[in-house]
Every structure is written in structure tokens, then in C-alpha cells.
Amino acid sequence: MLKLITFVSLLVSQVAAHGWVQEITLGSKVYTGFLPNTDNAQNPPPARIFRRIPDFNPITDLTRIDLQCGGSPTYQTAPAPLVGQIAAQETAKLNWTAWPANHKGPVLTYLAKAPEGVDITQWLPGTDAVWFKIDEVGKDENGRWAASDLLTAASGVWSVKIPENLAPGQYILRNEMLASLTRFLATAYPGIQFFPSCAQIEVTGTGTGIPSELVSIPGVYTPESPVTSKISKWRQEG
Ligand SMILES: *[C@@H]1O[C@H](CO)[C@@H](O)[C@H](O)[C@H]1NC(C)=O
Ligand SMILES: [Cu+2]
Q1: Is residue 51 part of a domain?
Q2: Is the C-beta atom of 157 inside 6 A of ligand 1?
Q3: Which of 36, 47, 108, 163 is a plausible cystine mate for 81, CB 3.0–4.6 Å?
Q4: How far apart are CA 232 and CA 238, in angstroms?
Q5: Ligand 1 close to Cβ of residue 23 (< 6 A)
């Protein structure tokens, strides 16, 4: 009986082979990602700059806190113990594990600045409006999706520049893959899968910029949002 269960769960995990960020390069410094398969086997898990994820399963409910930085019905997001360093204007390179070719969708990146006097290793934004988007890529003129086509063409590394005038401070960098399985491409939410990944970073520099329009996560997407209701038609804007 035990053998059968093990076999079945192995089978399931192979079929649902999603991914996670295995490594991030901030400027020229390399940090290991949170590796759910091996890190979760240790107690406590190794210290990372990434917020822990329980597994590589997608978030599918837009209303759950899990949409923020990952989670599951039995694990809610929590701060990580470490913080990475990057200067404004430098590029963060997020190295994702092999992304399944039938999981097509946009890739978006958000930042959230920790409030004055609050250390990011203690900070949980909850549903406060603290997030702003710094990058979004959908489908290009040749019909190639950010995930998985462009990501795979870039050897699995998603690059995003830290805005040059960004005010220094501690931020959560939230990089997110959306996936509409090829066979469901025309359908809307529900059915779309979200894969958020959150790194804690300290941005240095002399900038002063902080957007005034902030969104909450969860909250930023509704079933009617263009990105969730018309994913097959969605294109990169601006
Ligand atoms: C991504 O990270 C893995 C694991 O550290 C490494 O083997 C691989 O070379 C990295 N890929 C790139 C393109 O840097
Ligand atoms: Cu999937």
C-alpha cells in the first residue's frame, strides 16, 4: 500500500513539473534560490534571500494570500532570513528551472518597499497596497510568449532592470510567471496558473523615485482583468 502511494505521488510530481527560481544574480552577486524539493526536506530550511515556497505547484485562486509570494492551504508566506544587495540601474537575473513548453503566458515583475523602520526580514505586506509593477512582457510580434518561449530562448534566465531613479531601501522583488496551458489557451480565469517568486533585496543608490500608485497582492487581479480574462489576446504594452 505504501509503495503504491509513493509510486502514484512520484508520477503526479513528474506530470506537474513546474518550476522555481534556482538562482538569482543581483548585479554581479549570485544567490541561491529557494529550492522547494531539497530545502523543504531540511528543518529549518537553509537561509535564503527568497521567501519560502512549499512546492512547485501553481497558485490558481486570485483571492488567496498565496498569490503574493507562494503558498498552499497548509503553508502561508513568511519573510526570509537574508537580504540580497543590488544598486539601482543594475539588472536582476532570475534563473528559473526548465519551464514546460505548454505553459504559455506573460511574465510580470513587481516591487514593494518595506515601510520605514521595518526590517524586510520581519515584513509581511498582507493585503496592503504596497506593490508597483516594473516590468511586464506578454507575446511578441512573432507570437512568442514571455513564458515559456522567450524565457527558454534566454536559457531560463529572466532579466529585469532595477529602475535607475528608485529610492534606496529594502524591497520585495516579485517575479511572476502566468501560465495558460496550451490546450486551454482561449479560456479565461479560472484555469490560469500563477507562479510568484519573491526575493528580498536591498537597493542602493541616490534615487528618490517611488510610484504613488500602488496595488495590493492579492487584489491586483480580478477575473475581469485583461491579463486573466483575455490571456490569449494579451500583448506586451508600451
Ligand atoms: C542556472 O542555475 C543553475 C543552477 O545553479 C546553473 O547550473 C545554470 O548554469 C544556471 N543557468 C544560467 C544560464 O546561468
Ligand atoms: Cu501547470
Answers
A1: yes
A2: yes
A3: 47
A4: 18
A5: yes
